[in-house]
Amino acid sequence: VQAGVRAVGGLPLAFPVMSLSEDLMAPTAMMYRNLLAIEVEETIRSQPLDGIVALGNCDKTVPAYLMALASADIPALLVTGGFRVPVTFRGERLGSGTSLWRYDDERRAGRLGDADWARLETCLGQGLGACNTMGTASTMAIMAETLGMMLPGSAVAATGDPRLTASAEAAGRRIVAMAGAGNRPSAVLTEAGFGNAIAALAPIGGSTNAIIHLCAVAGRRAIRLPLQRFADVSAAVPVIADISPVGAGLMPDLAAAGGVPALLAEIAPHLDLSVPTAAGPPLGDLLTGAGRRGGAIRPVDNR
Amino acid sequence: VTSEPTFTVVHGNLAPDGAVIKTAAASPALLRHRGQAIVFHSYQEMRDRIDDPALDVTPDSVLVLAGCGPVGAAMPEWGMIPIPRKLLDQGVTDMLRISDARMSGTSFGTVVLHVAPESAVGGLLARLRDGDVISLDAAAGELTAEVAPAVLAAREPVLPPITDLRAGRSWTASTSPRRLGDATTTSCRRARSARSGSPNRSSAVPDR
Which of A121, A202, A205, B103 would you call most buried, defined as having the most Cβ atoms within 10 angstroms of its Cβ? Predict the structure, then answer.
């Protein structure tokens, strides 16, 4: 990110904020989401910053950033760290969380012994990155990209993928242009923008937590998202992403199928295509040519 | 991928302000279900009882975990209540479960989440008892406790104590439990409902 900022004549400054670890925080990382949102918002407000690239990953960090950026409302982009590359156990790729819950039941029922459990633990703990299932981290990254707060195509990528590094550098370049042009989050965090996010949440079989987080982010722009709206959109837009726990695949399969642009192209009739993307041009322009690659993104007429 | 919608919202006397089911990750056969409740009023009570061989549970029972909403327990991901071991042994993989907690996006099963109002702020979950009959009709958007209003009104609500929230957790036998700070726990006690996204009370946007 800093290389990108410098490349176009900007001055990058890195500053730390608290980190919300999903696995170990007591009583739950959820208790600290609002605290992180306050910290980021007030840091931005108290410093002479022209724009911000928020680096994070996982469930609470992304919504906390979105809440903070919605309120501080200076030119802003998110860059997430990607998903963990799946590891194979007993001949199947392990899905973060989902496989653990299934094997925990096996263990409690006495069908998985201590040695196998120990081996499972080493497999589950391998590598950096967020959950490689359609957990809350994957879901919220997809929400952020759909909302125009992340560069197109950057939300669904494996940790360590060179393309992720390239998109971080591109975000550094882009934020300087956005600061110059005065592109603020309030231009994309609109009724239409949240409508698109809700429309994208249904076809991915997204996390229920995204409902809570989207309501909180929208609240920062004084937009209310009634609960029933999520159900109504779910009834109209079918699940087309074949990703665990609703489907059979994992996040690498969604990346191979074209990620968010390919997904949004498939549900284009349900979207407001006039909203701007983080790259600048309206969503409709982006989706031209982002079409079907098959694989884990099914056509809406053959789910 | 599935013919079920990703989310369904249900209402009823148990959840006048709504609750959410991830229907796409649920068992279609349980989306219309009626059964007797087994009610846990805290996570600890659930852990203490769930694998008890004496637990009076059948595959048709409805597991309820209350006291775990935004105000009660900072809304942890406890909604996917474990299947009792005695049923796991019989091959049961899903049951109807109901909670004011959240669940991980990686979780699955027929789980009614984010029940509002939550137990800690006067929700009916606090007045449920073992044996109460609960019915769910997801397609109709209905979640009902089949208990007479007068009976419910006469019951003492079971509320989650704030000490549970502040006590924190001890991770290993060698680390002592930590007490959480007053600032965040107090702010959590003043959190708004899940349907507003559970922001701080200072949020400019009203609950409704």
Answer: A205
Interface of A with B in 46-65 (CB under 8 A): 59
| Per-residue pLDDT tens digits for B65-113 | 999 999 998 999 999 999 999 999 999 999 999 999 999 999 999 999 9
Q: State the best of A18, A21, A31, A57 to mutate against chain B, taking most chain B CBs within 10 Å.
A: A31
Flag whether residue B132 sits within 8 Å of chain A, measured between CB atoms. no
Q: What is the pLDDT of residue B198?
A: 86
Chain B residues whose CB is inside 8 A of the A100 CB are 106
Query: What span, in angstroms and rounded, lies between the C-alpha atoms of A248 and A153?
Result: 22
CB contact under 8 A, B197 and A101: no
Question: pTM for the complete prediction?
Answer: 0.95
Measured CA to CA in angstroms, residue A128 lies from A6, A52, A58, A245 at distances of: 27, 24, 11, 21
The model's pLDDT over B36-69, given as tens digits with 9 standing for 90+, comes to 999 999 988 999 999 999 999 999 999 999 999 9
Alpha helices in chain A (DSSP H): 2-7, 30-46, 61-72, 98-108, 114-124, 136-146, 162-181, 191-201, 209-220, 227-236, 251-256, 259-266, 283-287
User: What residue ranges of chain A have pLDDT lower than 50?
Assistant: none
- pLDDT of amino acid B208: 41
- Where are the alpha helices (H) located in B57-161, listed in sequence order? 70-73, 85-88, 149-154
Give CA angle at B57 (B52, B62), nearest 5°.
120
Residues 6+ apart with CB under 8 A from A67: A33, A34, A37, A41, A216, A217, A220, B199
- Phi and psi at residue B40, in whole multiples of 5°? -110, 130
Beta carbons of B102 and A38 less than 8 Å apart: no
For A13-39, what is each residue's pLDDT tens digit? 999 999 998 888 878 899 899 999 999
Q: How far apart are the first and last CA of chain B?
A: 34
**Quick one: chain B helix, strand, coil %, rounded to 5?**
25, 20, 55
Cβ neighbours, 10 Å, residue A113 = 11
Residues A78, A231: Cα–Cα separation, whole Å: 28
H/E segment holding residue B145: strand B142-145
> CA dihedral defined by A31, A33, A39, A40, rounded to 10 degrees?
180
Take residue B10 and report the two structure tokens written for it: 């249900």
Write the single-letter amino acid at A65.
Y
The pLDDT assigned to B194 comes to 86
Instruction: Give the distance from residue A5's alpha carbon to the nearest chain B alpha carbon, in angstroms.
Output: 33
Q: State which amino acid sits at residue A62.
A: V
CB A32 within 8 A of CB B186: no
* N residues, chain B: 208
So what's the pLDDT on residue B168? Answer: 58
- Chain A residues lying within 8 Å of B7, measured CB to CB: 202, 208, 211, 230-231, 234
